[in-house]
Amino acid sequence: MKFVIGNDHGGIDLVDSIKEALDELGHEYEWVGTFDKSSCDYPDIAKKACQKVLDNEADFAILICGTGIGMSISANKINSIRACVVTDTYSAKMAREHNNSNCLCLGARVLGTELAKMIVKEFANAKFQGDRHQRRIDKISKLEEN
Ligand code: RB5
């Protein structure tokens, strides 16, 4: 699987740990920045990373800001992106199995590095269960039409 990693200045400290988790699982990734701690705006990064998912250049986006919240609000404005802020491993698994999330949002000022790595691994290893969950995803897509 291929991932795209995007972060703002508040998220940059977690990037290396996320790369490490993906390396350990043998997944490919592209890092679209920001690449230093200069202040930047998370919606710009969310847009850039999610576009890679929409263009099928990545299967999933991992977006990191201070809390994960700004990234998730931004990403969820983009049609077909189902972003979730996750702070525990159970939710990471459910985000894929039930919600077919294609965008994991993490808070670098919230999570420790080892927990963040475990969350990424749960998310990456889980599979969407389809069936009744697909019906609900279809209803989410309908909401985008208005
Ligand atoms: C940047 O200071 C911070 O506001 C941002 O990284 C993020 O936490 C917003 O949700």
Could you outline the blueprint of secondary structure elements for this entry?
Blueprint: E1 2-7, H1 15-25, E2 28-31, H2 42-54, E3 60-65, H3 69-75, E4 83-85, H4 89-97, E5 103-107, H5 113-125, H6 132-143
Parallel strand pairs: 1-2, 1-3, 3-5, 4-5
Bound molecules: D-ribose.
Description:
The protein has 146 residues and is α/β, with parallel strands linked by helices. Helices cover 45% and strands 16% of the residues. It has helices spanning 15-25, 42-54, 69-75, 89-97, 113-125, 132-143; strands at residues 2-7, 28-31, 60-65, 83-85, 103-107. Strands 2-1-3-5-4 form a five-stranded parallel β-sheet, sandwiched between helices. It is globular and about 40 Å long. The structure holds D-ribose. The site of D-ribose has 9 residues, from helix 3. D-ribose (RB5) is lined by residues 8, 10-11, 42, 65-67, 69-70.
Summarize the structure.
The protein is α/β, with parallel strands linked by helices. 45% of the residues lie in helices and 16% in strands.
Helix content: 40-55%
Quick one: biggest sheet?
A: 5 strands, parallel
> Quick one: how many beta strands?
5
Proportion of strand residues: 15-25%
Strand order of the largest sheet: 2-1-3-5-4
Distance between the termini: 32 Å
The gross shape turns out to be globular
Number of helices: 6
Order of helices and strands: EHEHEHEHEHH
The class by helix and strand makeup works out as alpha/beta
Keyword list:
alpha/beta; five-stranded parallel β-sheet; binds D-ribose; 146 residues; 5 strands
